[in-house]
Amino acid sequence: VPPGSILPWRFFSCKEGTKIPSKRKQNTSLTTSELLYRNLLKSEQEHWNDISARYKAVTKRIKEKLEELHDKYTFNSGSPGIRFGENVYFAEHSCVFLSKADDDEGNVDVLFSTEDLGFSDTFIQRIRISPDQKYMAISLKSDNSEEATCVIVKLGRFPVMEKVIPSVFSFEWATNDVLYYTSQKNLKCQNVFVTTFTNQKHTKLVYTEQDARFFVDIYCTKDRRFLTINSNSKTTSEVWLVDCRQPFKLPALVQARTKGVIYHIEHRNDELYILTTYGEPAEYKLMKAPVASSGIENWQLVYALEEKMKLVDLEVFSDHCVMFLKNAGHLYLHVISLVSRSVQSVKLPAWACEFELESHPEHTTSTCYFQLTSPVHPPKLYAYSFKENNLIEQAVQEVPIITNCHTTRLLAKSKDETSVPITVFHKMSSKELHRKPLLVHVYGAYGIDLNMSFKEEKLMLIEEGWILAYCHVRGGGELGLSWHKDGCQHNKLKGLHDLKACIMLLHKLGFSQPKYTALAAASAGGVLAGALCNTDPDLLRAVVLQAPFVDVLNTMMKTHLPLTVEEQEEWGNPSADEKSMKYMKSYCPYQNIKPQCYPSVFITAYENDQRIPLTGVLRYVQKLRKAALDHARSTSTKGNWIPNIILDIRATGSHCDSSWEESLNEV
């Protein structure tokens, strides 16, 4: 079977109103290993309950402060909305709102809440409006699952719920009453369906992906001319086009997948604008080709990025293309005229670290809206005017501006002399910085940037005198695709060397010292954080890990897990390659635990995490505690201490997005 194949309509159909299947009755007999696992889980939960009781007073104070900051900044800053002419739709606090774009008084109408639809304890993840604004599709997610439910609502004076589709990842309207969506199962998206809301309702399977390394999603071009079915692995992609004027016509292939070539599609005036890694250097560049002859042999270069420039996002409008870029931590806009081919480069304010873009901005607009934010700066609205060729700061929001925080950008020399960017925040008035506590952040995987959007807890730490540092190590995407490539598979240790160099430079420059330094990481960031604990524990006093990937080798050897095959392009394949297995073993946090003086470690894990198996986290904690205890017993050094190693296993919550209330409890 070919990797991606289009299925004729007759191959599949399902009845309307399909209900979520109930889970089969589980076998009640328990194996010895399951009993051991349950006993260990119970023991850890009792240990956590005992320890957390000691922190009730400080927890109460922090929670009150965070709620105060949340109320002060979050709602006022607004969430990026969806514009349709004068209408702006947006979601907040499990409600969907409608406002007018030119309303300076901030009047909003509440269209409906998730509770109105019969879904309590869920939050809104995504909104899509039909072109005639008669229907709205929204995805609702609970804290306990990565799978979302898509609900289609007929808008009006009294909104009506038309359809509920379980386990949906992405969805887009092809026409006023035709919706395409992808289904999600075991963390994979490999099927695309179309469903109609005409008099003759039907649902059919359109596309299926056969290769387990590929993940399928759907996107609508800005001019609403095409839907794109995007099938992507970590290194390769393939796109099919659905013509929105003929939504039931079989999708057309743009370019068959070519190993190592990633591409994404936009459309303007019967031409495809192709954002791709094709050609040298293997960084993103903008190319174009006619819709009628879209093969790679017809791709023509429109614009190539400079070296070390990271493309964050791209928006194509009727006569302009806007590139949102990062370079060494600074944010830029490149505005390309698709008529004259002129390029306007705009450097954005120095404090800004992250873009937040509008969902589906109007294609014909003369203004591009976006928000700028940082870990300690709430989102602030900006606009770029194509008519005036200038940047406009929107003053409509009454959001207090953070003025007492200093932003510094540094470069650390890694073991191989590579310069590694660091972004540092601290209070303007802080004196004796070497005595202040420092919280270091790291990720370094999948070509993904460190999350530097606004978080109430980061601002709280700044106000209480902390220093925050973000280490943009290799394996992440901060300096483009080559930065990721230089830190994955057989280059993973480079990310570890980068992290060590960053922390040593911070201390050398007087930003705190080891006994006041903590390291925070989540998910795959746990690999580098856990590895540093093994190689250089004396650099840190404490480590905070959220759903950490710490048992790399054992996990990657288990090919039956849902993500193992897909992840091999990032970590390697130890089952088939002995060299890969030895290299993975050399840095795997679990494999390299040894008796020594470790920093204190706090881990949050989730009982039902599909991405990071809890068994691996439990094994890691047990082995780490034993190593720390063995070291303490074998040494009689005066002042010797045993680190706190705490595991908080949460019955609710999941690896990815969670509601504000759930994340507040974790924080």
Low-confidence stretches: 1-28
> Helicity, in percent?
10-25%
Q: With helices defined by DSSP (H or I, 4 residues minimum), what is the helix count?
A: 11
CATH topology of the domain at 404-558 and 584-608 and 625-664: Rossmann fold
Summing up helix and strand content along with how strands pair, one would put the structural category as alpha+beta
Strand order across the largest sheet: 1-12-11-10-9-8-7-6
The CATH architecture of the domain at 404-558 and 584-608 and 625-664 comes to 3-Layer(aba) Sandwich
Q: Report the average pLDDT across residues.
A: 87
Compute the number of strand runs. Answer: 36
Beta-strand portion reads 35-45%
Largest sheet: 8 strands, antiparallel
Task: Spell out the CATH superfamily of the domain at 404-558 and 584-608 and 625-664.
Answer: Alpha/Beta hydrolase fold, catalytic domain
Molecular shape? globular
Structure overview:
The protein is built from eleven helices and 36 strands. The protein is globular, with a radius of gyration of 25 Å. The chain is of the alpha+beta class and 667 residues long. Among the domains are: 305-401; 404-558 and 584-608 and 625-664, Rossmann fold (3-Layer(aba) Sandwich). Mean pLDDT is 87; it is low at 1-28. Helix 6 (525-535) links the parallel strand 33 and strand 34 (542-546). It has an eight-stranded antiparallel sheet, with no helix packed on it. Pfam families: Peptidase_S9 (PF00326), Peptidase_S9_N (PF02897). One of its GO terms (biological process) is proteolysis. Keywords: Cytoplasm, Hydrolase, Protease, Serine protease. GO terms for molecular function: serine-type endopeptidase activity.
